[in-house]
Write a structure and sequence with these properties.
The chain has about 475 residues and is an alpha/beta fold. It folds into three domains: about 1-145 and about 275-340, FAD/NAD(P)-binding domain; about 150-270, 3-Layer(bba) Sandwich (FAD/NAD(P)-binding domain), CATH 3.50.50.60; about 350-485, FAD/NAD-linked reductase, C-terminal dimerisation domain (Enolase-like, domain 1, 2-Layer Sandwich), CATH 3.30.390. The chain has helices spanning about 15-25, 40-45, 50-65, 80-105, 160-165, 180-195, 215-225, 325-340, 370-375, 390-395, 425-435, 440-445, 455-470; strands at about 1-10, 30-35, 110-115, 115-120, 125, 130-140, 145, 160, 175-180, 195-200, 230, 235-240, 250-255, 260-265, 265-270, 275, 310, 350-355, 360-365, 380-385, 405-410, 415-420. The strands form five sheets. Strands 1, 2, 3, 4, 5, 6 and 17 form a seven-stranded mixed sheet that branches.
Length: about 475
């Protein structure tokens, strides 16, 4: 068996792993990157990029449905060519993944090792059956994988996760999506707009990542108005029927009126969450503190685990499974592994998340659940709001669906966070995240420029409402002329 001695071993070559490797090398440490699966990162291969390609196609098709409302006659329905849709998705997906592979190809061959690593002890990794690595420091960056209830495996190849969708050569006629979270909403709505019959089921009435009850209620209605969505479903039957190409999934469920319905779909898509890839790392061979899911506990700012020379980053850390977070965590973990034992706190940016559904969803800073948990006993926070249904620019573009809540601290006027469902939420979310990271007050945010007519004027309305409720500004005035018409 090959023997390697190294300063830093990075397990996993995704977004976090690549960042950790580069940061460790920048500190002058010798480092090796270990990967058993395909190169290309989750985002590029099966996550954010291919899903946005599918959404872009869906948006193009959806414009034909909206055209008559603008007075534009569409003489015939658009023909959606599923093969061409999926061909572009896969071509562009492969292009994005190719950029990552090229970056990996640029890493010296002696710094890369193919295979799956497992802890033998706190400083020893065995990679498959061919290599033993003695590492002074180790970064775990093994990512995550989709998870679903074990009995569903009986559906065979009629059960898919989001990774599988992007391997289709053509669009199916029908799917059932389980899990109206970020992945489920994006894929389900896109497939619906591309002519696929979609049934979406959830549990506990949760839709997306929202925690604000008013926004959750709004989200349930606005998505259910477009396609079948039951966020608290009672599915009683899910089984295979037929043989070969005629095989389909039989579903039996109570609809929202309480009536029992039976139907068939081509596929079941499980969008029921992801699981950190740490269960096969041999963590039982080291004395490391784990959380209730079996994931190593780590300091939020240093990514250091209870074993001082072991760090964890990215989706494997069970913190925030987003690409920009994985990149930041990888840099912090790799930097600390490289400079060990001189551990430094890294920059953790303000939380920012987006769902690219229509209307979009954005979450910034502290969620409503977090704010309410911290401040409700002292009654020392307020909520400003705006509806986009009557907001000027939103109505002009017929994108007037949505609700924005912004949260502020009584006394200081500090902006705490926001939740939003509405038009251009991805962009408004960025503005709010910058303000949150700069620890701005609501009054300071209101001093910033707002052009007219733009959707962001709705944000100003919500901030004015919040400022008034914090008793730091005048009460809102209906049809305020200096606000601009339809602001």
């Amino acid at each position: 068996m090959q023997q390697i001695q190294i300063d830093v071993a990075v397990v996993g070559a995704g977004t976090a792993g690549l960042g950790a490797y580069r940061a460790a090398k920048a500190q002058g440490a010798s480092a090796i990157l270990i990967e058993g699966g395909p190169y290309g990162t989750t985002c590029a291969r099966v996550g954010c990029m291919p899903s946005k390609l599918l959404i872009a196609a869906a948006e193009a098709a959806h414009q034909f449905e909206k055209a008559p409302a603008f007075g534009i006659e569409v003489t015939q329905a658009p023909k959606i060519n599923g093969r061409q849709v999926m061909d572009r998705v896969k071509r562009e997906r492969d292009r994005f993944a190719g950029f990552v592979v090229e970056a990996v190809d640029g890493i010296p061959a002696e710094d890369k090792l193919r295979g799956y690593a497992k802890f033998i002890d706190a400083n020893t990794l065995q990679v498959d059956e061919h290599t033993e690595i003695q590492a002074k420091r180790i970064v775990i960056a093994t990512g995550s994988r989709p998870t679903y209830p074990a009995p569903w495996a009986s559906l065979g190849d009629r059960l898919l996760v989001n990774d599988d969708v992007f391997e289709w050569d053509d669009l199916p006629e029908s799917v059932a999506v389980f899990g109206p979270g970020v992945i489920g909403l994006e894929l389900g709505q896109a497939l619906h707009r591309l002519g696929v019959r979609v049934l979406m089921f959830g549990v506990g009435n949760q839709v997306g990542p929202l925690t604000d009850p008013s926004l959750l209620s709004y989200a349930r209605k606005v998505y259910a108005d477009e396609f079948y969505l039951d966020p608290d479903a009672k599915v009683e039957v899910m089984e295979l029927e037929g043989e070969g190409d005629n095989q389909r999934v039989k579903l039996g469920y109570q609809d929202k009126q309480g009536d029992y319905v039976e139907t068939h779909v081509d596929y079941v898509i499980a969008a029921t969450g992801r699981r950190p890839n740490v269960d096969k790392l041999g963590l039982e061979n080291i004395d490391i503190e784990l959380d209730e899911r079996g994931v190593p506990e780590a300091d939020h700012f240093t990514l250091q685990t209870s074993v001082p020379h072991i760090f964890i980053a990215g989706d494997a850390s069970n913190q925030i499974p987003l690409l920009h977070e994985a990149a930041d965590q990888g840099r912090i973990a790799g930097d600390n592994a490289g400079r060990f034992p001189d551990i430094r706190a890294g920059l953790r940016r303000s939380p920012l998340a987006a769902v690219f559904s229509d209307p979009q969803i954005a979450m910034v800073g502290k969620t409503f659940k977090e704010v309410d948990g911290m401040y409700s006993k002292c009654n020392c926070y307020a909520v400003g709001e705006v509806s986009f249904e009557d907001q000027g620019r939103s109505r002009v573009m017929l994108k007037n669906k949505g609700l924005l809540h912004v949260y502020g601290e009584q006394g200081t006027g500090l902006f705490l966070g926001a939740e939003m469902i509405g038009p251009e939420a991805e962009h408004i979310g960025h503005l709010l995240a910058w303000a949150h990271q700069q620890k701005m007050t609501v009054a300071q945010m209101l001093d910033m420029p707002f052009y007219h007519p733009v959707i962001e004027e709705g944000l100003r309305t919500a901030l004015r409402d919040l400022n008034a409720k914090l008793h730091l500004g005048p009460a809102m005035i209906e049809q305020c002329m200096e606000c601009g018409p339809g602001a």
